[in-house]
TrEMBL record:
Enzyme class: lyase
GO cellular component, one term: cytosol
The protein's name in its UniProt record: Phosphogluconate dehydratase
GO biological process, one term: Entner-Doudoroff pathway through 6-phosphogluconate
Keywords associated with the record: 4Fe-4S, Carbohydrate metabolism, Gluconate utilization, Iron, Iron-sulfur, Lyase, Metal-binding
Catalytic activity: 6-phospho-D-gluconate = 2-dehydro-3-deoxy-6-phospho-D-gluconate + H2O
Record note on cofactor: Binds 1 [4Fe-4S] cluster.
Gene that this sequence comes from: edd
Organism (species): Gellertiella hungarica
Binding residues for [4Fe-4S] cluster: C159, C226
Dihydroxy-acid/6-phosphogluconate dehydratase C-terminal domain boundaries: 411-604
Length: 608
């Protein structure tokens, strides 16, 4: 398909998604429209129901909510004050309630959802709960909205699994309008490349824990999202380009007047698009196949997180849309990379925003015919309204102007006519090991093909120990298996990045093959991740033995175990003792999740 012009290819991929999804999408829309017809009229609640629902409200709010004329906005919040990205949400409910009153409505916190930080749990037992927390978040939000008290909902969430979980909930309650309200990134601290350099020095034993902690603390230093372009900031990009954010909302720093003005505006907009007005925009009708394709295009154009090869599939499925890895890979072939943000460059998200940010990016993608402009968004019809530069105007009102004609920093954000590379760098690999995903936007071209003997590990600590013992100073492909959703919840394997990076810097040709995840930190070392079927399911990755030759070819999109078919057929799949992964730090509570988990290429969730 890549021989066609980009807009023709994108249209063709969108059509095939529409056709593939038709039965499930039609059934979904029928459910949404049925729920819309019933409406969240509070008069259908018994007097006891309603009294419980507004018991703590002010007298005027009780009187308003006693009938159906005053709109009630449900707030789903991921606030906690331990995590930098979600701490700013502490003050949002008060701001939203006040803005709702100004608009003649009422707002209530409908429920809270958990928000765990992969940065805290990285390499720890708690990381094995991380991916499944997405589905818990969706269910927790569903519980909050199940009271049927609300005409619309606003969702306060930022990071890795939180936003995908909230999107799944918003689409499950697709009869309600949904506006996502971000908190924004922390201000720039220690440059991400310097942080990475210190991590590699620590891995080599050249600096100690004190120096490492100092570097990490200077990088992650205040309220807001981490500034590198991982899953959290990929989430914010997606919410804007898919139309869940108001234009320009994604990357405004916390605690600023513009940030608060955008929150107030989002509240009033949520109330304006309910069934009681003339702009009714239920989330399930708003998000369609075109919106999903726009999200994938944005992911490729910015070099976003590989986690979204899981999350976008699961999010789309919540709206009855069947997105596949092949769709994602084919779109990558025709979408150029327009942003260089760490780990795909030296800049952070604040530099990206200053260079023109989402407004310039969307403007350029529209110029290239790479986005569906004719989509619905929370701001209204069409994506052109998102090709803007957002500022604070008089009286603390949000002011939007057309996006700048040129990037303020072409080293960070490129025009469509001069992309950093002609494709998005996120590809599907296929071969006799099954299917996998690789992100090569930060991998040097001479590393796109690696053929080397396998060294097999069943735990990332085993690789760490082998590295420290000096056993890995050679060309090899590390196979880290039994890391899939059924095995141990599919943790991110960030602890592998520093040692593999060191070995590559020493001149060795190294790569990673795993049924686990690497996320937005997938960097300079070629990594075939999310291998499906996973080892726990008896996938071919369980047949690999030390010394077997592997070939990872990101050019042709193949991943092959170079062993004869007869010999492979004679091998028994390896087994791993996973007992240590079944208990501690709450892992015993997720046994049913591991049992029910779907394959990675189906989103790795527990929902059918």
């Amino acid at each position: 398909m890549s021989s066609q012009t980009p807009h023709v290819t994108i249209a063709a991929i969108t059509r095939r998604i529409v056709e593939r999804s038709r039965p499930t999408r039609e059934a979904y829309l029928e459910r949404v429209r049925s729920a819309v017809s019933k409406k969240p009229h509070r008069s259908v609640l018994s007097c006891g129901n309603l009294a419980h629902g507004f018991a703590v409200c002010a007298p005027a709010e009780k009187q308003a909510l006693a009938g159906d004329q005053v709109l009630n906005l449900g707030i789903i919040t991921a606030y906690n004050d331990m995590l930098s990205a979600h701490q700013p949400f502490e003050t949002y409910p008060a701001i939203i309630r006040e803005a709702a009153r100004e608009a003649g409505g009422v707002a209530q916190v409908a429920g809270g959802v958990p928000a765990m930080c992969d940065g805290v749990t990285q390499g720890q037992p708690g990381m094995e709960l991380s991916l499944f927390s997405r589905d818990v978040i969706a269910m927790a939000a569903g519980i909050g909205l199940s009271h049927n008290m609300f005409d619309a909902a606003v969702y306060l969430g930022v990071c890795d699994k939180i936003v995908p979980g909230l999107v799944i909930a918003a689409l499950t309650f697709g009869h309600l309008p949904a506006v996502f309200v971000p908190a924004g990134p922390m201000t720039s601290g220690l440059p991400n490349d310097e942080k990475s350099r210190i991590r590699q020095l620590y891995a080599e034993g050249k600096v100690g824990r004190a120096e490492l902690l100092e570097a990490e603390s200077k990088s992650y230093h205040g309220p807001g999202t981490c500034t590198f372009y991982g899953t959290a900031n990929s989430n914010q990009m997606l919410m804007e380009i898919m139309g869940f954010h108001l234009p320009g909302a994604s990357f405004i720093n916390p605690g600023t007047p513009l940030r608060e003005a955008l929150t107030r505006e989002a509240t009033k907009r949520a109330l304006a698009i309910t069934a009681s007005g003339n702009e009714f925009t239920p989330a399930g009708e708003m998000i369609d196949e075109r919106s999903v394709v726009n999200g994938v295009v944005g992911l490729h154009a910015t070099g976003g997180s590989t986690n979204h090869t899981l999350h976008l599939v699961a999010m789309a499925a919540a709206a009855g849309i069947k997105l596949t890895w092949q769709d994602i890979s084919d779109l990558s072939d025709v979408v150029p990379l327009l942003a260089r943000v760490y780990p795909n460059g030296l800049a952070d998200v604040n530099h990206f925003h200053a260079a023109g940010g989402m407004g310039f990016l969307i403007s350029e993608l529209l110029k290239g015919g790479l986005l569906h402009e004719d989509v619905r968004t929370v701001a209204g019809e069409g994506l052109q309204s998102y090709a803007i530069d957002v500022k604070l105007g008089d009286n603390n009102r949000v002011l939007r102007e057309p996006a700048p004609a040129a990037s303020a920093d072409p080293k960070v954000l490129a025009p469509i006519t001069q992309p950093f590379q002609p494709n998005g760098g996120l590809k599907m690999l296929t071969g006799n090991l099954g299917r996998a995903v690789i992100k090569i936007s930060a991998v040097k071209p001479d590393r796109h093909i690696i053929e080397a003997p396998a060294i097999v590990f069943h735990d990332q600590q085993e690789l760490q120990d082998a590295f420290k013992a000096g056993k890995l100073d050679r060309d090899f492909i590390a196979v880290v298996r039994f890391q899939g959703p059924k095995a141990n919840g599919m943790p991110e394997l960030h602890r592998l990045t520093p040692p593999l990076g060191v070995l590559q810097d020493r001149g060795h040709r190294v790569a990673l093959v795993t049924d686990g995840r690497m996320s937005g930190a997938s960097g300079k070392v070629p990594a075939a991740i999310h291998v499906t079927p996973e080892a726990k399911d008896g996938g071919p990755i369980a047949l690999i033995r030390d010394g077997d030759m592997l070939r990872l070819d990101a050019v042709s999109g193949t991943l092959e175990l170079l062993v004869g078919a007869e010999e492979l057929a004679a091998r028994a799949p390896a087994k791993a003792d996973l007992a240590a992964n079944e208990f501690g730090m709450g892992r015993e509570l997720f046994a049913s999740f591991r049992l029910l988990a779907r394959p990675a290429d189906e989103g790795a969730g527990v929902f059918a």
